[in-house]
C-alpha cells in the first residue's frame, strides 16, 4: 500500500444485510466518526452480494470516458476473489453516504502538517466532505484514493467475512478454507459454498478492523484488460448522457449572459422575442436572461432576438494586452512568495560562468467539452428533480437546493454519463445548474431542459488561467546548472512548479494574479502550465551548455531513480539520436503529476513556411501498478491529444472585457487528421499508485516546442504555436551561385 497504507488501515468496515438476504459492506474512516454528527448513515455500501451470487459494486465517481467504473470494480473484485463474470458496477446515488471523503483524506495528506495527521485527518476529511457535499471525479484520484482506500479494503474485508461464515457453518478453522471465483472451499474435504449462499450469514458477523490486502504478486484480475461495460453502449449509440433526457410535457430553455464577467443585467427589450412562435416566457437573472420555449431552436432564436442592456462592472476596457502588461508589472514589483527554496540562488547566479534568462507565457484555455453544459429540471410539490451529467452530483444537489429555496433532502439528482468534463463540470463551475433551477421555477410544474449554446459555452467558461513566468538559470564553466530561479504569476498546486533535477541552488516563487475573467481547473490543472515552462527552459539550459537535451536531463537525475528510468526508456523507445529528414526534429520532456512520472518525446516537421506537424509521440509512464492497461493507454493517448490541441491551437483572448472566441470556428481543437502516431509504454515500478487521466497532458507542449526548436532553430516561448516565424534563409554563396 505504500504511503496510502498508513491511513487505509485506520479505516473501518461497516456491515449490514440486504433486503431479501445478502451482504452489504462498506468502508469508513475513524471509528469515532458516527459521533461527529451522530449520523448512522455511514454504511457505505460499496459492495452488495445477493443470494444469486451476484456482486454489485457502487461507484461514487462519474463516467466521463475514463473507465474508472470498471477499474474500481476490478480492484474490489480482485480482493474479494470474485468471479468477474458475476460482478456488476453501478453509479452511487447523489447522497451524503457516498461522499468521496477518500479524496479529501488523500489530498489532505499533502497539505496538512505532519504532526496533525495522526489525530485529525480522519475527522477533517469526513467533515470537509460533508460540508462541501463532495462526490467528486477529478484530480486523477478515483483509482489511487477511492480504489486503494475504499474498494480494495471492502473487497478484502468481505472475503474474510465470507470465509469466516463458511468455516462456522462447517465447524472448521477459517485458515483451512480458501476463496476463489465467488466461492469458498474447504481445502481438506473439498466442500464449497458460493458467496451468495454465505452472504446472509456473513452479514451478521463483525467485520475485520484491518483486512489483509493481496500483494501484487497474487493479483489475477488487476493488471488485465477485460472488456469495459460502458464501451458497447458508447459505440452503438445507446449510451445516455444528460443532454439526452426527454420527459413528458417538457419545455426547453437557453440563456445569454453578460459578455463581460462580473457584469449585470440592467434591462432587456423582450418585445421581439415574446412575439416569436413557441415562446413560453422570458426569465431575467442577475447577470443573464433566458428564454423558455416549446423547442430548443425556438428558444435559441428568441434569445438572439432579445436586446439586453448590460452594466460591465468597470471591466469593459480590459484586453489580453492589458492583462499581460499587468502580469509583467506584477513580476517586476517584487520577488513573490517562495514555493520552494534551497541553497543561495542569488549568490550562485552571481558566480555562474553564464546566466540564461527567458520569459514564457501561456493563455487562457477553454474546456470545450463536446456536451455543453445542460440540465433538465422539474420543480413540483416542494421537490426538485434534476437530470444532468456532472463531475460532482452531490454538490449539484446542494447548489440546486439553494437556487430552488429547498432543503437538500428535497432535491434528487440523476447523474448520467458526462460528455466531457476536464474540470468544467466541477462544483466551482456550477453556474449552469443554478441557472437551470431558477429558470425551471418559472415553468413549474412542467420540466425544462436547459441547454447552453456552443457560443455561450466557449465565451462563458471557467478558463485555465493565463500565466507568465521569468527564468534565470546559471551554468558553471563545465556547463552544469548551478542555479535555477523562477518567478511566475498565479499559484501552482500539488508542487506543479517544481522539477526533479539535482540543482543545488533553487528558488521558485509566485505572485498571485487575478482579474475579472473566470478561471477554474483544467485537465492536469497547474501542471499544464508549468510542464511547458520548466521543461522548455531545461532545454534552453542544455543547449546553452552545448549538451544533448536528453543527456543533460539524465545526468541531473539520480541513478536508479524512477525519473531516470522513465526518461531513459522514452529516449530508447523513441529512437532518440537517430537520423531524421531535414526540417524534422525531436523534443523530450519529463514531468511528475498526481503521483505519476511521464516522459514524452515528440517528433515534428516544420515546413519552410513555418507550419508545424506532429508526426509521432512516444510516452513512457510510471504510475505504480496498472489496473486496466488498455484504459490506461487510452487515457494517456487522450491526454496527449488534449495537450497537443492546446499547444498548437488553444487560445482565449479578451477584448473590451469580453472573450472574443465563441465557437469551434474561432477556438480550434485538434481533429482526427491532426493525430500523430502515438506509442505508450508503462513501467510498473510497484510504487504507490499515481493518477492516469490527467498525466499525459503536461509533457506534450514542451516536447513539441523543444522538437520545433530542434527542427527549425526557433525557440517557442509563447503558446499556442500555430505556425512559427522561420528565420530568413541565408543568401547563396558566390560558389553556390556560380553552379
Integer tally of domains? 3
CATH architecture level-2 label of the largest domain: 2-Layer Sandwich
Poorly predicted spans: 1-12, 29-44, 108-132, 732-739
* Range of helix content: 25-40%
Mean pLDDT: 89
C-alpha-based Rg, rounded: 28 Å
Computed structural class: alpha+beta
Q: Which word captures the global form?
A: globular
- The H-level CATH homologous superfamily of the largest domain, spelled out, is Aldehyde oxidase/xanthine dehydrogenase, molybdopterin binding domain
Question: How many β-strand runs?
Answer: 28
In percent, how much strand structure appears in the residues? 15-25%
- What is the CATH topology of the largest domain? Aldehyde Oxidoreductase, domain 4
Q: Tell me, what is the CATH class of the largest domain? A: Alpha Beta
Strand order of the largest sheet: 11-12-9-19-16-17-18
User: Alpha-carbon distance between the termini?
Assistant: 71 Å
User: What's the helix count?
Assistant: 21
Task: Explain what you see.
This protein is α+β, with helices and mostly antiparallel strands and 739 residues long. The chain folds into 3 domains: 2-228, Aldehyde oxidase/xanthine dehydrogenase, molybdopterin binding domain (Aldehyde Oxidoreductase, domain 4, 2-Layer Sandwich), CATH 3.30.365; 242-313 and 373-451, Aldehyde oxidase/xanthine dehydrogenase, molybdopterin binding domain (Aldehyde Oxidoreductase, domain 4, 2-Layer Sandwich); 320-364 and 463-736, Aldehyde Oxidoreductase, domain 4 (2-Layer Sandwich). The chain is built from 21 helices and 28 strands. It has a 7-stranded mixed β-sheet. Strands 1-2-3-4-5 form a 5-stranded mixed β-sheet. A 5-stranded mixed β-sheet has the order 14-22-21-20-15, sandwiched between helices. β4 (55-59), α3 and β5 (87-91) form a beta-alpha-beta unit. The radius of gyration is 28 Å and the shape is globular.
